[in-house]
Please model this.
Amino acid sequence: MGTLNINDIQIGMELAENVTNFNGTILLKAGAIITEKHLMALKAWGIREAKIEGIEESNMDEPALSAVDAEANAMIDHELAYIFQKNDMQNPVIAEIHRLVKKRKISL
Model:
């Protein structure tokens, strides 16, 4: 199970956990298979992410990484190493920020 941004969730994916609003009201139950109607409703409710079955946190960015050639990937890694040089990469928050920045740079 992995957490995906609402814009990365695709029709046919299965929810791993209930999706709730800010009050804790269940909007969609775990096990629901995502439809186009679900995606539109989640966006309308302001839901930014959901936990999805079959997605592993460790390989969430593999499709994006495979689309970048080795030289560009090395340049991005070098730049991020400089930017994050004084950060504790063992900290899960910092590691997630690093992952998101790399994903963003790859998509540009």
